[in-house]
């Protein structure tokens, strides 16, 4: 494999990993606060549609992003209301959100644009275009560093850089701030937080909103940066793969980056090498494309060693008598 | 005679806490009724009462977990409303809960700081807490490693973290809810030294317990609660355990169990050289042999963890033995498998497990469902088509409730909603119902209040008098001595001695529990 192909593969992995990473971090915020979030998929899908629609109508990718975040936040609040305020079952609430998003995006899309559920093709300012970082041209003559900088580091859209920045930011906020300490505590033992005189409800809503924000960016990335418009079910299970990555990463931000890059790489390989011949056997293209999903199953089946979820995860907080 | 009364404020200046007419109801249940309580500053004030007497509710009101329906709380003489925990902390009240309010994966430092951070960033808070802990450790013997993960600490150390949390928040009044229930005797002694040191520094301590020995040992004054009311507050020096026990239950308690001498019949159950080696290769039981006759109670004493639990579980068929045999009326029991509970019941061996929450009851099931568990396949509960006869089961449950005075007398209530004593009565009623030939009882009165203890003890003795063989495992030596006809003491998985109950005393049993047999001639 020549260096250029390797660079292309790496760049493609990075681009494919970005929505996973954003969704994975969204799940991380939510679950570290003790709320299971099966609805990542639905929030992302709703955001992808809204972002695509807003961008098509207004011609601005940024307004699209805002719309996407808004839609995702609404669903996040709905999940919060069901699971925090009403103390409902978080899994069921998440599943409901997925159905709601899947149905609504198709219905509204068809009635609005009459293109079989698609949003109109985006171009120009309605899309997030790759940004060429400074010195890319100047450095291009430097061996190794030049091509890597120009081909891998530079030339991505702003949302991808945002996703990468979210990793250290998440780590820092969780481990170095008062909010993070309290949020992690509420996911482990909400009674301890309550008796310390802090509102469990407010912390958990905070987490649900951060998850909504990140899912919103992930959805907008799909329809206005990676693709040029919304297509039906375009999340294609990415929300669930993100959940698997979250388990794989044991609910920690840096390993989440690693896990999402691994899934991104598998997807990139599946797209690029439609036929691979191993020891004289041609691996079917379907198998290659199924790789990320197969890995998901393997991870969730517990082949990654003991993954201890936040202890209060999935349980509504009820003051004991 | 009262000293010069302060007429300006409502409270008196030397009182840290004053409750005036505090009441609290949960639906129709009056948990606290017209409570008047005065706790002097710089003292240890005990609050005793049976389970369900309202102690915990009262303290939860003081800590802002619940709001009182009526009455006034005064802290340091000033009326202080306490709507939530934050207000309690601000008023200088700290609480050490019975079930610790700790975040286990966090370090000690993080737990101490949680909720009392100085600013948005953690680093300065953690540094300040580290200094504070060093100071508190020096002043009060509260040593813990600030960087240790709380989940890895011993229960005693976790409790110290809870106390440190309260002190870090500058609590002047410390409430401890049943603090010694989970501690070893050495840890409890340590705790009492800490509490004494805190009192000497001028802190006020409220100690909730149902152990009268602790009240006598450490408190300056004691209030007795019964059925939601404070029936009496006394200086500890002027009372006795017997008086307190009487106040708690409202009638005289039999501290000794009334029982006639045993009239043992033929041997019913017999253990021969039972041994157990666990998965890790440790020998948990070493050649344990004994026999129990009809109409006899064999008490098995020992410090927890010396093989008593394993022995009971092997006999009950929920744990296999490595070697040895057990005979019921001369016929062997199958000790090879761990799933012989049903077989044992069919042969007339009933079992009241040590851990009733895990093994004795299904907590979310109703009392009537729990009343048939393990016996659900018996003909008397069977309806047609392989279904259960609910009416028959409910009738049996109602009979149990009446016979064992289980309160509240509702067979539709979930097991989880009964008090500890009544839960245990449900289990014991179920197991005694079938008139078993052998009753295995583990820790029959753990977490059970005094009134129920007396009742349960009487039931066990009555069963003996009907000619049944009873094996009683308990870590409470008082209980072993009060009930047993013979006492077998275990140490390190082996029998360190067997004595007739009337021929031994606490001192001798204590030595045997430490593995020393005072009667054995210094051989080897």
From TrEMBL, chain B:
Keywords: ATP-binding, Cell membrane, Membrane, Nucleotide-binding, Repeat, Sugar transport, Translocase, Transport
This protein's GO CC annotations: plasma membrane
UniProt cross-references to InterPro entries, sorted A to Z: AAA+_ATPase, ABC_carbohydrate_import_ATPase, ABC_transporter-like_ATP-bd, ABC_transporter-like_CS, P-loop_NTPase
CDD domains registered for this protein in UniProt: ABC_Carb_Monos_I, ABC_Carb_Monos_II
Protein's cellular compartments: Cell membrane
Membrane topology: Peripheral membrane protein
Name under which the protein is recorded: ABC transporter ATP-binding protein
Organism: Amaricoccus solimangrovi
